[in-house]
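Journal club prep, notes for RB
We'll compare a predicted complex against what the paper describes. Inputs for the zinc ion case:
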Amino acid sequence: MERVRFCKHCRHLLKEGFLYCPYCGQEWKDDSTMEEIVDKGFEPLEHREINSTLNTLEQLSNKLDIIDSELELFLSHSV
Ligand SMILES: [Zn+2]
């Protein structure tokens, strides 16, 4: 089985033996561990999760606004 690795800079798949990345031209340096690359690879996913959490919070806040105005309406009718 052929060993593969990923470019540190553009994260393209590189075949073993490449000294330079053919995609971004950066020199391959063997000083990054697989763990490091995987960590970096998950970064965008975390951002997406944060964004969806923010969206959910915004939706909840909108619902609270609606409830708030409905409550106000209710109270003004009951007085
Ligand atoms: Zn590259």
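Talking point for the session: DSSP finds one helix and two strands in the chain.
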